[in-house]
């Protein structure tokens, strides 16, 4: 009896079923709270022509940047794509299509996708290149544009702790896009640092309820720091 | 004399009010945190999901799970709240942040702002800037008044692709502090030793100049 | 013999699969929780913000902060999650609940359901029913096949105001288990001792009857 | 220096500024997690012609039901209005206007209002009386209706614990509509059982960040139970 035990025991199993041409929604902000090992597994599999939804695209050689090395990404919806020389090169050569999306709209598109809201209006982007070609409507005297939501074939998520039912808790600012991504995958895969027994997480303190989670794997993480800023202390 | 970056940050900091929730962009806006006036408490919002950003960590405190929107390692002050990007932008888009300070390439007399894209140059993305300018009711732009070649950045109409339309109401440049309303820049203060004439000559948009334009003062 | 309420709940419970997240409406659907087959684990969702509803509390466990969508005091099972109404309906609207069981006044051959309002009678509100029927892909309606006066509740087209349009795919009545597809009710099973003719006579909507209609069996 | 200290020390101060004709958004589900004392203060003040947004309207003599006694509510947006004889009477006599709203749509309208989303599409209510007169649009083959969001003059919220900055944590299913309501008030007033020091609540475990909260008051609560169901134990 499997019941609600979402655990899998290999990254191969975790990403089973991912194919070229699929849409993948990824949690993470910069290199913080990214599903490192799930990304590495996608690289290992060599699937191509992926459409990625993620705030950033990692850096050269780490995070989603890894998927650029073998040109696995055809299209990316992101708010910021700096800090990545290979990315710039592929963008300038039209080897990758970049759909720049305001950060809040990106988060809301994922949240809405998971929540069964197919589209919403927002003032963000009105009057800018982002609003071009989109329906404009005025609400309470403000011009807003219509934005559609997204659901991915896969969502890949990095949590801190989870129970085996897939109830997930994030740690500090490693939360970022992960809770929204987790709701928006047809198959949602979560990797965490620790798996605990059901009942160990306080029910009213769970960030991502297990209903959203299809597969859960415990991993070890490099957690690379992008900008180490310190004070004398 | 044009203001230094530090003086610009100092001048912006005077706009802070006790109890303000503030989002500071990258660059000069970030420096504002160093000049918060005595007796005033502000809470810094970082759009990756942190309300109550603290100081940079000591070496011992560095934590890869604790960064700000500039991807720098930071700390949280006591009483901080940490949440998802969705919640963070709900806050921003919903107008709950009291003041946003951000840089710009150009602003115009109708409050339009261009800050994220120079056609022909590499585009890195708007990040959260479009959400911030659309959501905040109270925005200060910090920027140099003109380019190194003397071309005004305070325009009748922005030339570059916009970040937001009709959303900027205050601008602090290295030469002046101005308000934008009724389709014009209203000169409020000038940098020490900078003449009204110089500001006029470097402002391409419509400029309204009152009889008396006070000079900013900075303690040494 | 028409099914009892308990038998209806038992029959619905056979549709449960191991690992299903299930929302059970008030009335007969609630009883389904008592007949979950051995070896099958289901997680009950309560739309006020509880995933993993447990048993009723003992007197000592009663907690006013712990209720279900029917406002009854309940407990949470180990591994439950509790969240806001917004999150709860994100789950429901987003199609994350595997099975919804709810009662109805009428259903029709196109999968329309009327369950919340009888014009001229007092209207108490739809609660979460409209969200549930719009969000779930897998819905079983439990209802009596006909009124006490012999009027069919399985119609060509609902007469009462709808709860949802084209969303119901399975109906369990006291007389039969039916699937709705391609604009017709498809008779799948009949209650013990109930004839196909009786079901035909009490079904006003288009009914498709296969050559063999198995009789439901219940252990004593 | 007040800074971020949101505390007030009387219910009078907590509801200062509420006036007849205003819109009030209330947390709570049934009698669970309702801002009992804030409601009682609204009753005491006798303001009239209120528009209420709340899932329910309490029961006779408790919760929002109290505001019916002196006919303080002109209009209510709710998903369920049973369990209340006085309410039924006022509804049948057209003394109160009831805008029945699907429960999930109601929650989403509050959440969207607080999040600066003026309107969204949902399949909920399409083809029903709720969809009448609303714009219909098809997304991915499903008919959806356009629903507008709400912002209230006041939001009244019941929390469990809060720090004086207004960071709030809810307890168990007393959470319900409270987090959405908290975001959707021009003035948001939260009453809690306990006020703790800043830093005592774990930053990544806060349900309602203090930025949404204007006033905070510590109270005592009756917490009436609507349906006491027990098993032998």
Automatic annotation (TrEMBL), chains A, D:
GO terms for molecular function: succinyl-CoA:3-oxo-acid CoA-transferase activity. The keyword Transferase applies. Its EC number is 2.8.3.5. Pfam families: CoA_trans. Transmembrane segments: none annotated. Signal peptide: none annotated. The keyword Oxidoreductase does not apply. Keywords: Transferase. InterPro entries: 3-oxoacid_CoA-transf_A (IPR012792), CoA_trans_fam_I (IPR004165), NagB/RpiA_transferase-like (IPR037171). PANTHER family: ACETATE COA-TRANSFERASE SUBUNIT ALPHA (PTHR13707:SF60), KETOACID-COENZYME A TRANSFERASE (PTHR13707). This is Putative succinyl-CoA:3-ketoacid coenzyme A transferase subunit A. It comes from Halomonas lysinitropha.
TrEMBL record, chains B, C:
SMART domains: CoA_trans. It comes from the Bacteria. SUPFAM superfamilies: NagB/RpiA/CoA transferase-like. Gene3D superfamilies: Glutaconate Coenzyme A-transferase. Keywords: Transferase. The keyword Transferase applies. Belongs to the 3-oxoacid CoA-transferase subunit B family. This is Putative succinyl-CoA:3-ketoacid coenzyme A transferase subunit B. It comes from Halomonas lysinitropha.
């Amino acid at each position: 009896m499997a019941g609600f035990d979402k655990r899998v025991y290999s990254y191969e199993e975790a990403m089973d079923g991912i194919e070229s041409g699929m849409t993948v929604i990824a949690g993470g902000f910069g290199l913080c709270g990214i599903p490192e090992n799930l990304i590495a597994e996608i690289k290992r599999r060599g699937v191509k022509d992926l459409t990625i939804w993620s705030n950033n695209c990692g850096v050269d050689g780490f995070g989603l940047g890894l998927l650029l090395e073998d040109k696995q990404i055809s299209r990316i919806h992101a708010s910021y794509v700096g800090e990545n020389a290979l990315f710039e090169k592929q963008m300038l050569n039209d080897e990758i299509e970049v759909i720049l999306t305001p950060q809040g709209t990106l988060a809301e598109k994922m949240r809405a996708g998971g929540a069964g809201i197919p589209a919403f209006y927002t003032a963000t982007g009105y009057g800018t290149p982002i609003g071009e070609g989109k329906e404009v409507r005025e609400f309470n005297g403000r011009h807003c544009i219509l934005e559609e939501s997204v659901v991915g074939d896969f969502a890949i998520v990095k949590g801190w702790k989870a129970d085996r039912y897939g109830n997930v808790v994030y740690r500090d600012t490693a939360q970022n896009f992960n809770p929204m991504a987790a709701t928006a995958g047809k198959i949602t895969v979560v990797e965490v640092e620790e798996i605990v027994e059901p009942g160990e997480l306080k029910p009213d303190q769970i960030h991502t309820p297990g209903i959203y989670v299809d597969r859960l794997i415990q991993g070890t993480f490099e957690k690379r720091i992008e900008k180490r800023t310190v004070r004398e202390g | 004399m044009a203001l230094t970056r530090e003086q610009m940050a100092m001048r912006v900091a005077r706009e802070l009010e006790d109890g303000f929730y503030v989002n500071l962009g990258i660059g000069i806006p970030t420096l504002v945190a160093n000049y918060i006036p005595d007796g005033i408490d502000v809470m810094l919002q970082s759009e990756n999901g942190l309300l109550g950003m603290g100081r940079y960590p000591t070496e011992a405190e560095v934590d890869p799970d604790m960064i700000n929107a500039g991807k720098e390692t930071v700390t949280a002050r006591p009483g901080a709240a940490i949440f998802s990007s969705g919640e963070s932008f709900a806050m921003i888009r919903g107008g709950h942040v009291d003041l946003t300070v951000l840089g710009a390439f150009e602003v115009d007399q109708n409050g339009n702002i261009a800050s994220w894209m120079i056609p022909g140059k590499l585009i890195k993305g708007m990040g959260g800037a479009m959400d911030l300018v659309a959501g905040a009711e109270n925005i200060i732009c910090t920027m140099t008044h003109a380019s190194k070649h003397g071309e005004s950045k305070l325009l009748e109409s922005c030339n570059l692709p916009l970040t937001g339309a009709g959303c900027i109401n205050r601008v602090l440049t290295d030469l002046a502090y101005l308000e934008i309303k009724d389709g014009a820049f209203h000169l409020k203060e000038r940098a020490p030793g900078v003449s009204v004439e110089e500001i006029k000559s470097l402002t391409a948009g419509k400029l309204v100049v009152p009889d008396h334009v006070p000079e900013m003062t900075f303690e040494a």
